Amino acid sequence: MAIVKPFKGIRPPKDLVEQVESRPYDVLNSKEAKAECEGNEKSLYHIIKPEINFDPICDEHDPKVYAEAARQFQLFQDKGWLVQDPKEYYYIYAQTMNGKTQYGLVICAYVDDYLNGVIKKHELTRRDKEEDRMKHVRVNNANVEPVFFAYPDDAVLDEIVAKYTKEEPVYDFIAPVDGFGHQFWIVDDPKDIETITARFALMPALYIADGHHRSAAAALVGAEKAKNDPHRTGKEEYNYFMAVAFPANQLTIIDYNRVVKDLNGLTPAEFLAKVAENFEVEEKGTEIYKPVKLHNFSLYLEGKWYSLTAKPGTYDDTDPIGVLDVSVSSNLILDKILGIKDLRSDKRIDFVGGIRGLGELKKRVDSGEMKVALALYPVSMKQLMDIADTGNIMPPKTTWFEPKLRSGLVIHKLD
């Protein structure tokens, strides 16, 4: 069962939130972060992308960069740009994209739940990326950015969230980069806090939607601190890490598409003939074609769009991994025809989040940078949870969640 707790969040004052808040550290590069916070000393980028504070921008893995993160975090607190709440609270964080709002509970999840599998993952993590985030957690002694969780739908939690979101939010702003709305409330009633803890305790699992490296880093640092603390009681803050947990039925996974640099020595006609061995191929012309269902794909090649529908027998609906369209396309097109064996390391392939639209695929092929594009029907939350429940791991670049969580609305200290 899932163990969660409230915490004394460290947050910006209401009038400063729009100066402090930022995009997550991993969705933009150092140069973009520096440009985005130009002239704004209060931007969280100074903590989560501290390499921008050096001129010229230095290597983000340089030891002095981590020390700068800690210096900035302390500076923000000293100047009152980040202030710790006096009591332990849960928080509600709402995001609005294209008229649809999803409501998440900001919680502290239990480190041991990550280690023993109650918090379920669906992606592999890379040790170098884990270590980078672990260093950031260690030097700041805090989870500066939250992880993105999904939880099984719960009507009681829905009622609590609805009660608070009728009131005026503590924060309410439109993010300038993407135009998405963000709102934030404090759950301060002791009975509601108790109920939230109790409802999560009934859940057999929580699911990482986005932020696998942040989850791993937070949990590993927590476990490290526990191991090195001879007086550990189990109630210390380092036994928990910060997450925003959304009901699964409110989340939408966006397609994650592929572009490839060449046809592996084949002519376009030869390539399409090989594709037709396992797919029903239908030419759609020059108008953008979007996949309409599972096992239907969209292909863009030489100025034309094609519908590809996997033939029966080319996939196994009883295999939670094999049934995924990322698996079908990887096995039957990328590997078998184009010779791309490893999606993580092959330089001939790149990935485009569906938030950018299929027009981005067309643009990259038309420019000559890429030769062919493949658009996939998005994975469902049910598929993600089924895979996590069976202990399986999704292939690389399968899920794209949008909107991303904004960073800087609340921070969790580990002491």
Condensed summary:
This protein is of the alpha+beta class. It is built from 13 helices and 21 strands. The chain has 2 domains: 4-252 and 402-413, no CATH class; 256-377, Conserved hypothetical protein from pyrococcus furiosus pfu- 392566-001, domain 2.
Chart the SSEs and their pairings.
Layout: E1 4-5, E2 10-11, H1 17-20, H2 30-36, H3 45-48, H4 63-78, E3 83-84, E4 90-97, E5 100-110, H5 111-115, E6 119-120, H6 127-140, E7 142-143, E8 147-151, H7 155-165, E9 171-174, E10 181-187, H8 190-201, E11 206-210, H9 212-227, E12 240-247, E13 253-254, E14 256-260, H10 268-275, E15 279-285, E16 296-301, E17 304-310, H11 325-335, E18 349-353, H12 358-366, E19 372-375, H13 381-389, E20 400-401, E21 412-413
Parallel strand pairs: 6-11, 8-12
Antiparallel strand pairs: 1-5, 2-3, 4-5, 4-10, 5-12, 7-21, 8-11, 9-10, 13-20, 14-18, 14-19, 15-17, 16-17, 16-19
Helix pairs in contact: 4-6, 6-9
Describe this structure in words.
The chain has 415 residues and is α+β, with helices and mostly antiparallel strands. It folds into two domains: 4-252 and 402-413, no CATH class; 256-377, Conserved hypothetical protein from pyrococcus furiosus pfu- 392566-001, domain 2 (2-Layer Sandwich). The protein has helices spanning 17-20, 30-36, 45-48, 63-78, 111-115, 127-140, 155-165, 190-201, 212-227, 268-275, 325-335, 358-366, 381-389, and strands at residues 4-5, 10-11, 83-84, 90-97, 100-110, 119-120, 142-143, 147-151, 171-174, 181-187, 206-210, 240-247, 253-254, 256-260, 279-285, 296-301, 304-310, 349-353, 372-375, 400-401, 412-413. The strands form five sheets. Strands 1, 4, 5, 6, 8, 9, 10, 11 and 12 form a nine-stranded mixed beta sheet that branches. The chain has a six-stranded antiparallel beta sheet with strand order 15-17-16-19-14-18, sandwiched between helices. It starts with a strand and ends with a strand. The model has no long low-confidence stretch (mean pLDDT 96).
